[in-house]
Amino acid sequence: MASTEAIRSAEGRLRTAAPVVRVASVGKRYVRDGPPALCDVTFDVHEGDFLTVVGPSGCGKTTLLRVLSGLSRPSEGAVLLDGRPVLGPPAEVALVFQDYNRSLFPWLTVIRNVMFPLRRTRVSGGARVARAEAVLDDLGLRGVARNYPWQLSGGMAQRVAIARALVSRPRLLLLDEPFASVDALTREELQDVVLRVHGELAERRMTVVHVTHDIDEAVYLGDRVLILSSAPGRVVGSIDVDVPRPRDQTASRSSPRFLAVRNEIHEIIRRPQ
Amino acid sequence: MTVRLVKRVGRPVLGWVVFAAAVGIWEVLARSEGSFLVPAASAVAERAWHVWPTSEFLSNVEASLRRLAAGYAIGASVGVAVGVSMGSSRRVRQALEPLVELLRATPAIALVPALIVILGFGDRMRIAVIAFGVVFPVLVNSMDGVRAASPELHETASLLRMGRAERILRVDLPAALPSIFAGLRVAVSIGLVMVVVSEFVGGGDGLGHYILVERSQFNIPEMYAGILFLGLLGFVLNGVFVLVERRALSWHHGATGHGEH
Question: What are the residues facing A93 on neighbouring strands?
């Protein structure tokens, strides 16, 4: 009896110690023998971590997310999710695109967009609505549930896209420059929404990989910042962000640690490769 | 205030003024000509008023509408089905494109003699002609609509683990709907043309047949009454379509700002 429990807890510990995502020597060429978009990228992401990936534009950040989400297959190496190779989009992964206008279904109302990922789950009809409504409430979208996406501002529409990603309770949330097409104030607001969601779901251990070209955003959001070089993208640095959580737009951003990490990343990016 | 009011009612009023002027010119010219081959607008209206409610005329209307409905239903469903599958699968597109391009370039009217040979003079030939005229605008618009959908929508579909059939039904089809509707609307007027053309041959009934018979009997005002009815029919069918479209595509008109006039 005691021994089975010991084994079980040992298993549990092993499982938490193993990375959720393991990227092993991933290379990607879109055209055979063409120029590589990614080159020998290797890193792990552990359960509950918030990893941000930063790099100059055209460095393969989006390619990296596409490979992580299973939308494209790596040309070399492999991506493992919980130890299993990713061969197509896994059910436990959700992705938020930069352009909410193109990824939300314009013919569905906000709540139907958000309910969509639940369509084939065992969640019953009524429970689906309840779950979608809970996520909408959480993201401040209660009032617009019956609206169509075009009736919303950019910031609200991106919240809907985030809500749709969260409703299926993903194990891994991928964010592809999700705040690049909204104004600066909305961007800060959405950054805090994402931080809050990640913090609240900490007990469910949602892991986040967030891609951005904005170094300050990367530092503000991440537990760790992965730095990619310009094309072909390779990992040129990985810096732990020891700025305490919960983070605050003014206090955290002006803390000496924040500035030190930010400057370090700047130097790595400017360093000739 | 008054200026804005004039501006707002100005446009429709202007349109009706031009319309009335055109009818007036017709009336004056026809009267001054004095030929029975060019009846005045008032004479045509008077004839229409008497002829339209007759059971003979209405049975012709009914025959034409029946053919239009049958041909349109066949042409539109084939057009949407083939167009959407060509839009969503490159292999289907590659397989069918040369055939479709060739058939599409063939004027439907030119097919009438061939279809008479194959199907005879009856309704089957007429419905086939109408369907042939209807199918291509619907097909091409459906295909283009699917292909114009953003790649992010397709990626969202695969991230949501949709299979091919589900993607076509729940993403490709609704995304293409505005374009499909545009094709369906154009096809209504083409369908009406094909109705009349197909009824010009082989006798029987229908509005095309009616116009031809009245002409051959020199009942010129009756002939114009038939033409006028076809014009009004096209106008009404188009209006019905605009209404249906506005309801079905409110999300699209809102998103593109075409809804508010």
Answer: A172
Q: Tell me which of A88-97, B49-58, B201-210, B252-261 is least confident.
A: B252-261
At residue A47, the 3 state secondary structure works out as coil
Q: B93 vs chain A: nearest CA distance in angstroms?
A: 23
**So where are chain B's domains?**
1-33, 41-256
- Contact between residue A65 and residue A40 where contact means Cβ atoms under 8 Å apart: no
| Contacts with B183 (C-beta within 8 Å, 6 or more apart), sequence order | B79, B83, B137, B138, B139, B140, B141, B142
pLDDT at residue number A17: 66
Distances (CA, A) of B226 to A128, A167, B193, B206: 57, 60, 14, 10
Task: Report the number of distinct structural domains present in chain A.
Answer: 1
Q: Are B171 and B129 in contact (CB under 8 A)?
A: no
CATH of domain B41-256: 1.10.3720.10
Q: Are B71 and B191 in contact (CB under 8 A)?
A: yes
In a domain, A272, yes or no: no
CB pairs under 8 A between A and B: 51
Q: Residue B17: left if φ>0, alpha if ψ -120 to 50, beta else—which one?
A: alpha
**Is there a contact between B131 and B75 (Cβ–Cβ < 8 Å)?**
yes
Nearest one of A133, A129, A194 to A159, comparing CA atoms: A194
Taking a C-beta distance cutoff of 8 angstroms, is the pair B127, B71 a contact?
yes
A95 contact B CB<8A? yes
Q: What ipTM was estimated for this complex?
A: 0.82
Tell me, yes or no, if A178 comes closer than 8 A to chain B by beta carbon. Answer: no
Where are the alpha helices (H) located in B34-54, listed in sequence order?
41-51
Is the CB of B152 less than 8 angstroms away from the CB of A97?
yes
Residue A80: its H or E element: strand A76-81
- Residue B213 one-letter amino acid: V
pLDDT above 60 for A12: no
The stretch B118-137 carries a mean pLDDT of: 95
In this predicted model, what pLDDT tens digit does every residue of B24-79 receive, in sequence order?
999 999 999 878 788 999 999 999 999 999 999 999 999 999 999 999 999 999 99
pTM above 0.95, yes or no: no
Q: Confirm whether A121 is domain-assigned.
A: yes
Domain encompassing residue A111: 106-168
Contact A191, A217 (CB under 8 A): yes
Identity of the amino acid at A161:
A
Rounded-to-integer distance, Cα A108 and Cα A226, Å: 37
Closest residue, chain B, to A94 (C-alpha): B159
Q: Which helix (H) or strand (E) holds A195?
A: helix A184-200
